[in-house]
Design goal:
With 273 residues, the chain is mainly alpha-helical. The protein has 11 helices and 5 strands; from the N terminus they run H-H-H-H-H-E-E-H-H-E-H-H-E-E-H-H. The longest helix has 26 residues. The termini are far apart.
Length: 273
């Protein structure tokens, strides 16, 4: 009996090694899975890596001829001068390509058979009429509408500010010899001048300067394009010769009384340029 019981126990123990084989397989699978997880972690993937790819937002490529036409239309329809950065950002094209096409477009407008040109004004590009056609265009506009212009006191004040800026109201009055508070308000309303802080003297008067709108309205690239004193003297000499011409033909010349105060300015001062 004891031998049989021992034999039975021995047979039961002989069947024990079989589960050990399953344990080795599970361990191998766990090791393989751990290896895969380590490889994934090594790639440092984030949640964004599992998101679907977004389509590219870049504008489709355009041929040079078509892009040049687009640039021409953009410059034509905009009232304010456009900088190169604004154009490149708006049409989503490289700066070098846009600059090259703008140069080609400007050269095309420089031909004699074109009445317009692309000029750099106030740091940007704008389409304007050519200087040689200004007189013809001016006559055409005058035949359609009466001229809208600044009064003489307003032009004098604006000229003083343009050449002496920044400048205070008392300094302007000292140069012109008359009060000009009303004229300053007119120029401020038309955004031809703006404030530039206060002067560090007694009373701290406001300083005035010209604005970007001043450059736009007068078609200037910057203040360096303002006429020099020599050019003003030449213009004055030509005006003197023109005013003396009627007397040479025996015709009386009409004399204009100089304005002594800004209150005597004509109503045209309230009109737009």
């Amino acid at each position: 009996m004891e031998e049989d019981q021992i034999h039975v126990v021995t047979d039961a123990e002989a069947e024990v090694p079989e589960p050990e084989i399953d344990n080795r397989e599970e361990a191998a699978e766990a090791l393989a899975e751990a290896t895969v997880l380590e490889e994934v972690a090594a790639q440092e993937l984030t949640a964004e890596d599992f998101l679907p790819l977004e389509p590219e937002t870049q504008a489709p490529p355009l041929e040079d001829s078509r892009l040049k036409a687009v640039l021409e239309a953009i410059i034509y329809i905009t009232e304010e001068p456009l900088t190169l950065d604004q154009i490149c950002a708006g049409i989503e094209q490289p700066r070098e390509r846009v600059a090259l096409l703008l140069e080609q477009l400007s050269a095309e407008y420089d031909r004699e058979d074109r009445g317009l040109m692309i000029r750099e004004i106030a740091g940007g590009l704008r389409m304007t009429t050519k200087p040689e056609h200004h007189e013809a265009v001016r006559r055409f506009v005058r035949n359609i509408n009466p001229p809208l212009k600044l009064s003489l006191p307003a032009l004098e004040t604006l000229a003083v500010i343009a050449y002496k800026q920044p400048i205070t109201a008392p300094e302007i009055m000292e140069i012109r010899g008359v009060q000009g508070a009303g004229v300053l308000k007119t120029l401020l309303d038309r955004k031809l001048i703006g404030t530039a802080g206060r002067k560090n003297v007694v009373g701290k008067p406001i300083l005035y300067k010209t604005t970007r709108e001043f450059l736009v309205q007068f078609g200037l690239k910057d203040l360096n394009e303002l006429p020099t004193l020599k050019e003003f003297q030449e213009i004055g000499r030509m005006d003197t010769e023109d005013s003396a011409a009627p007397q040479d033909r025996g015709e009386p010349a009409q004399a204009e009384a100089p304005a002594t105060h800004d209150a005597e300015a004509p109503p045209a001062e309230s009109q737009a340029t």
